[in-house]
DNA sequence: TATGAATGAGACTTCATTCAT
DNA sequence: TATGAATGAAGTCTCATTCAT
């Protein structure tokens, strides 16, 4: 079983973007600086300097500083998230998971890997959500309903087989994200996400989730 | 059993601060604006305007804009968190919890109430952690070790009685925070934390935690 | 008969404006630079430098560069023009003009003096009209209808006495402005308005207008 | 009697210019934009976009932005004005005007038609005169002396015949331009020059001028 | 203590112009 | 000839901070 190679999605997006090397450099540098110092805490002159580019070049392509942010987040929101979601979900359909442990372990590992690979975008996204909760509301709704429909169906098969507690899908997903987040969030915030032992974290998280979500006979 | 009245800690801090009414107004307004728009996204002139105060007054007491931030977060970090922690822990000591459910339900409700009451400070804190992960590192360490020592002792009694799984305290706390966070974080981010049904959320969270953390005979 | 002292209207407006000396200096300098080099051709840094003021000060009071323009033109449009118009028209009512020559000479001299005194504002206004014909349309309509009502009544008395040709007021005013403008416009554009011999210009213009507007017996 | 077809002078100049279609497009677009928004208010990138041309192309032929301005105004100043002037003056010489009315009517209509046809160039010219009164001084002198010599001679014949008041040519031309301008300027500024009823305007203007300039017996 | 005018560094952005392709 | 990415100087504007009143 192969983990989808989500790490390269940002780079792949760059390559397909028809942006020049300099403009790609602007995006890469902006991703790092926005994640490190926040959007407001990053100046366009610093972006230009670190990208080895004139300040005019920064604006030639992206028009405004917000344009850079959009260029970073839109592919992530419009393509990466749904794509990765679909990607993993189609794989899920094709696979036979005999027990909850195998299924949970797969999903947790997949999502955790994705989160680590895109931790910078996630960090930036969190900041934007704080700065502008309205703008993000629609995005959240879209994502949630998508996950409910797809992931929820997988869960239903386990409920039908009597090996998953019969709680609302929303509640189960809540614990999924909460438990996964309890490993990812601290690691990302401290900036040591790369040192996270994914295998161990996944098996621990899976163990706890399976306990908590197995029906009591 | 009385829930500690954490909602008023900020206000109480203000009253005890010997600040003039205008300077208290500056702090209140800053708390709201920093939480809404971020520290960098808030200008001192806007603080002054909303506080009904001149621009000079903002700096008279707090010296710098960072000084305002410190005046908001330091009481929260230095007093409020430990105080509330201690407060709740001393109460815990005095109480007899016969089963895990009663204990977890109490703790979760206490912490969730606290988080909701201080959601703005938490929001600001998250932003600062993103902007400056180093500065916060020490704080995290301090808090964690404190919780480990105090909360961990309570957990040990349950482990000894064989009604709590024998995992490291750190791991159990991780799931505590993760599950509690799965209710609080979305509510706070969306800005609808006040509409959260705390009773229902706590009993749900407790139910799941108890399932996941009860030893399998 | 005393010519109204229109030269000091701008200065008087400044004094009544509650602006600090520095901000008044910004306005004075802006008036000169906008008139000399055009609005677009004048930079705020040059305004600041010539006004002996920091660039921040320029924006402290007037918010934007357009704000400076508004601060220059609004008093001119909202107060000066109507005021001067009313001023001269009430005087006209009180005066007895036996013949067309005396009346025309008075009016022409009054308006020509006013135009020379406010030549810079007029220059700026012309530029703005070119840049933004829509915005000015309403202003033109207001002024025209005002002049028609007031000046037109004076003209009517001369028509009734049979010493003024019975053309529409609008047409007569057209020639008034055209002939007066034929003296003022070149002088202002060349920048030698101060060398204009007002007495001679007025008597010449009056002579021509009286010839052209006297009924042919 | 044929009115010289001045409307096409700009187009004719373009055709004879050996400029490529793209470069002609640059000039046409620049003429419109400079007239609408002013020279300083028009960016070369906007010219390029509206002309359907790359930014580099704009500079390939005209070197600088001022070069575009020169390419627009120089033919107008160096060729169009004198040419049209000469053109009309040679025609005038060949024609016999029995009375002032016929002569004035012809001249006014000719010049008014010319002004309307070249209103955009005139608008641009006015802006440039405001921005740079020195540069234009020489041009004005040239034009004025030319008109004085040619138009002045025609006027002299009428003075000799005793049907034109014996004022200095300069003064008569002043009223000519003033009265003609009183029709043209408002129409051009408001942007409704095309709706101007030239026939009616000319006969009105002529009527007034003839009254004002006919000797009193 | 409180005010708010003043500051100047620096932010974002525009734009005329150049040059490799 | 034509393109458009790149430039960097300059423009408008913001903002934390100071200080005389």
Automatic annotation (TrEMBL), chains A, B, C, D:
One family name in Pfam for this protein: TetR_N
Keyword terms of this UniProt record: DNA-binding
Location of the DNA-binding region in this protein: 43-62
Segments crossing the lipid bilayer: none
Residue intervals of the HTH tetR-type domain: 20-80
Keyword Acetylation part of the UniProt annotation: no
Record keyword Secreted present: no
Protein name: TetR/AcrR family transcriptional regulator
Organism for this UniProt entry: Furfurilactobacillus milii
């Amino acid at each position: 079983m192969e983990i989808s190679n989500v790490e390269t999605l940002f780079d792949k997006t760059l390559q397909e973007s028809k942006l020049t090397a300099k403009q790609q450099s602007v995006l890469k540098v902006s991703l790092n600086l926005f994640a490190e110092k926040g959007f407001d805490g990053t100046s366009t002159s610093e972006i230009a300097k670190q990208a080895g580019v004139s300040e005019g070049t920064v604006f030639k392509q992206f028009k405004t500083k917000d344009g850079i942010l959009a260029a970073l987040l839109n592919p992530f929101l419009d393509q990466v998230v749904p794509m990765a979601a679909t990607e993993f979900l189609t794989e899920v359909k094709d696979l036979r998971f005999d027990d909850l442990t195998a299924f949970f372990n797969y999903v947790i590992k997949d999502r955790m890997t994705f989160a680590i690979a895109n931790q910078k975008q996630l960090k930036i996204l969190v900041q934007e959500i704080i700065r502008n909760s309205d703008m993000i509301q629609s995005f959240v709704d879209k994502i949630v309903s998508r996950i409910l429909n797809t992931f929820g169906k997988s869960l239903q098969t386990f409920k039908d087989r009597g090996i998953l507690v019969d709680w609302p899908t929303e509640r189960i997903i809540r614990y999924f994200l909460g438990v996964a987040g309890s490993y990812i969030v601290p690691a990302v915030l401290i900036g040591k996400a790369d040192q996270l032992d994914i295998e161990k974290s996944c098996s621990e998280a899976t163990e706890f989730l399976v306990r908590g979500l197995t029906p009591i006979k």
